[in-house]
Amino acid sequence: MTTTTNKRGARQYTLTAILLFFLFLILTGLQVFTERKATDGLRSSVEGVLAKWSIAAPTTGDPVIIPQAGWNYLRAFEAKGKGKTDGLVFAVRVTGNSGPVTGIFYWDKRAGTSFCGIAGIEGATPEQCGITPRVSEYWIRTIDRVCAERAAKGESK
Amino acid sequence: MKKNPVIFLFALCPLVPVSARFGYALVMALALCWYFLTGIAFRELVKKLDLSSAGPTVELVALAFSATVYYLILRWMIPTLAVSLGLYVFVSAFSYLLLLGIDTFSSDSLESIPLMQFVPTLILFSAVRELLGFGTISLPVPEGLMVVPVLPGFSSYGIRFWGTTGGAFILLGVLAWAAKYFHRRISSFRRNA
Fold it and tell me: pLDDT (tens digit, 9 = 90+) per residue, A61-98?
């Protein structure tokens, strides 16, 4: 009786482990499959916002991972362009008075962080999306801090 | 628990920020339907594999898996929306759990009534909010959201307050009152008929 119960328990544990491992494999596969298109699509939106923001705006280079900065800072790119050697472009979820939007920020070592605009909603201004100066200033300060910490850890170029 | 309107509204509350736009609500509504369908599939799989003691845990892991798959597909199809809505995809899984309750989620019943009421409520609520708050209706497209102006001259006479979270809670209260009022009226009409 005990042997039968043990066998059943072992079978259940094995099947559960196999199932969980299978789910893990699917997620890993999907992550790899979607990464490139997701990055290219986001890059295109970000560059659209940067081009509208300023004539001298940078373009986006390789994606950058900032360790221990949190989920919100996973979408960052190196800034590319004439005279832009040490900058980053961030696509960040900014929650204003009217819900979340994708805010684009440009951090430059000398000038600090600038709010460039909103990606993904055609013709939307920050005011229309409920992004008040206080909200954008909060993100500017936070990105400045994240980049300063990154520089302190010696991860900048 | 399933019929408790407080739980129903509590499930809607985490999604209030995303209900500012109709396009966002469509994405979230689709997520909830996806959790429901994958929930049924995983429940059947658990039954078939006879994982009786590990069943509820596997089903919860399956919900997290479904939410992650949905997020990855969203970022593949609409990368910009995945940045702004990424967190809320997982919040919607929490709302889904609130709606069905963990016990119901693991049971044999395929009771779907709370979800079937919740999805249209979310869509209707966001449509009203966007119309009153922005004068537009937005739809998800690969670039993000396509905004269609519906109320002409909104910039002159529109009140943006209804598009804010504060306005949403007032609208939610009005919506809850209206639903209760009409429910009572219909019940009394049926009794008298």
Answer: 888 888 777 777 778 898 887 666 678 999 999 998 88
Of A71, A102, A139, which to mutate for an interface test with B (greatest number of B Cβ within 10 Å)?
A102
A45, A73, B180 from A39: Cα distances, Å: 10, 14, 46
Kindly identify which residue of chain A lies nearest to residue B63, measuring between CA atoms: A23
pLDDT in tens, B78-87: 999 999 998 9
Give the span between the Cα atoms of A101 and A112, in whole angstroms.
22
- CA triplet B167, B172, B175: central angle to 5 degrees? 125
B172, two tokens: 């939610």
Q: How far is CA A148 from CA A71, A87, A92, A107, in A?
A: 18, 12, 17, 10
DSSP assignment, residue B51? -
Distance separating alpha carbons of residues B72 and B62, to the nearest angstrom: 15
> Against a cut of 0.80, is the pTM above it?
yes
Question: Residue A81 is which amino acid?
Answer: G
Torsion, Cα of B86, B90, B96, B101 (10° steps): -170
Chain B hits for A98, CB-CB cut-off 8 Å, are 20, 133-134, 160, 163-165
Q: Do B145 and A23 make contact, defined as CB atoms within 8 angstroms? A: no
In terms of phi and psi (left: phi > 0; alpha: psi -120 to 50; beta: otherwise), the region of B136 is beta
Ranges of residues in chain B whose predicted pLDDT is under 70:
1-6, 101-113
- As a 3-state breakdown, chain B gives helix, strand, coil percent values, each rounded to 5, of 80, 5, 15
Residue A117 pairs with which residues in a beta bridge? A104
Distance from CA of B144 to the nearest CA of A (A): 4
Alpha carbons within 13 A on the beta-carbon side of B22: 20
